[in-house]
Amino acid sequence: MEEKKKPSKLQMYTKMFASTFTLSMFTFGGGFVIVPLMKKKFVDELHWIDEEEMLDMVAIAQSSPGAIAVNGSIIIGYRLLGVPGALVNIVATVLPPLIILTIISYFYAAFRSSPIVSAVMRGMQAAVAAVILDVVWNMLKGLVKEKNVVKYFLLVAAFIASVYFKVNILIIIVVCGAIGTVDYMAREKKAKEGEEQK
C-alpha cells in the first residue's frame, strides 16, 4: 500500500488560506457558526488537527478578547505553521467580511429598504440558530466522552450562573479556568503517584 505523501509547506499555506477564506466568505451570523465548519475542514477532512485539540482551541479562542472566528483562525494557523501560519489565517479570515461590508456600505441605502434583503436576513437568523445548536451539541458530545465529574459540574454550574443569576461571562470563564487548572494538576499528581507505586 502506497504511503500518503505529506504536503509541502507551500501547499499547506495555500490550502489553509483557501480553506479559511472560503469558510469566512460563507459564514453568516456570528463567530460560533465558523467553529463546526473549521472542525469539518481541519479535523474531519484534512486530518491536520484532532477533535480534542480542536475543542481546546475553541475554548482558548472563546476565552480570549476579540471575535471567536479570528481568534480560532489565529490559533489553528499558529498550531499548524507557526507565526506565518497565524498571519496567513488572519488575512484569510478578515478579507471576505471586509470585501462584503465595503460593498454593502456602498449600497447601504438600497439594501436597507429592500424587502428581499429583509426576508433573506430573517431566514438566515433561523439557520444561524440551528448551526449554533449543532456546535453546542458537538462540543457537548466531546465533553461527555470524558469521565470527569468536575467538567460536568462546571458545565451545569456555568449554565445556571449565566442564565439564572446573570453572572458576567468573564467571571464564569476565569473561575472555570481556575477550577479546571486545579483539577488537572490534582489528576496529574495522582497519576504520577500511581506510576511511582508501580
Described by strand count, sense and barrel closure, the largest sheet is: none
Report the helical percentage. Answer: over 70%
Gross morphology is: globular
* Average predicted confidence as pLDDT: 85
User: How big a fraction of the residues is strand?
Assistant: under 5%
| Element-level helix/strand string | HHHHHHHH
Number of helices: 8
What is the domain total for the residues? Answer: 2
> C-alpha Rg, in Å?
20 Å
Q: How many runs of DSSP E, i.e. beta strands? A: 0
What class do helices, strands and sheet pairing give? mainly alpha
CA distance, first residue to last residue: 41 Å
Uncertain stretches: none
InterPro entries: CHR_Transporter, Chromate_transpt
GO molecular function: chromate transmembrane transporter activity
Keywords: Cell membrane, Membrane, Transmembrane, Transmembrane helix
Family: Belongs to the chromate ion transporter (CHR) (TC 2.A.51) family.
Features of this protein?
single chain; 198 residues; mainly alpha; 8 helices; 81% helix
Describe the structure.
The chain is an all-alpha fold and 198 residues long. It folds into two domains: 120 residues, no CATH class; 52 residues. The protein is 81% helix and 0% strand. The protein is built from eight helices and no strands. The relative contact order is 0.09.
Short structural description:
This is Chromate transporter. With 198 residues, this protein is mainly alpha-helical. The protein has helices at 9-25, 34-45, 51-63, 68-106, 108-112, 115-144, 149-163, 169-197.
